[in-house]
Design a protein that fits this description.
The chain is mainly α. It has a single domain, classed as Up-down Bundle (Multidrug efflux transporter AcrB transmembrane fold), CATH 1.20.1640.10. It contains nine helices and two strands; from the N terminus they run ββααααααααα. Helix 6 packs across helix 7. The radius of gyration is 30 Å and the shape is elongated. The N and C termini lie far apart (108 Å). 21% of the residues are buried.
Length: 248
Amino acid sequence: MTGRMVRLYSVADVDLGVGPTEIRHRDQERIVKVQGRLLGRPLGEVAGDVRKALADLDTPSNVSVDFGGDVEEQGRAFRDLVLLLTLSIALVYMVMAAQFESLVDPFIVMFSVPFGFVGVVWGLLISNTTLSLTSFLALIMLMGIVVNNAIILVDYTNTMRKRGMPLTDAVLISGRRRLRPVLMTTLTTIFGMVPLVMMRSSGSEVWRPMGVAMIGGLTVSTLVTLVLVPTIYTIFENRFRRFEEKKA
């Protein structure tokens, strides 16, 4: 009021203590951020260790722990990729159904897809590589590649049967005659991915999981497709033939 300066100790008690340098809020709640950097370990592995450590902590009931930053973005990205994977499988089936003009033949071809997943898992485990966004992208790409070999076998078998060949003979001949095209398409893709797996330059840790996933998925799916798809085709055709005979 008078404009004169007043010493602080005359109107307040001054004590030294510890307090936050800043107070942050989100959704009208006070938050505290704990940040860190990765060094030589994948994000998913570190996040798993942090979750295990938090599970052992006795946190108060009014305190909640949420992950943000790269962990949150990675979780959101994986959810989007799972949706894309589902859509890709559905689209592949619809395209094959339109081309084959049948709902059964595309279903037979799709039996090769799960073994592509198995090959990806085996490849990642053998090479000690973690599942990342790039390896998941390779998994989506495999949906349009692993079915090619099965399509070649089923389409040629249908062609042989349209020419009047018995079912068993058509399956055996198509397997023998289509073996070379199947191996050619698979090996060209596998060898095209080898540089991604072998490279050790800067940034290779990003693209290497894609090459490992592609090689593992193609190798296992091709070996299984050559045996499984003709077998499934024969079983389905025999059952449909019996069903049509009973219906007649």
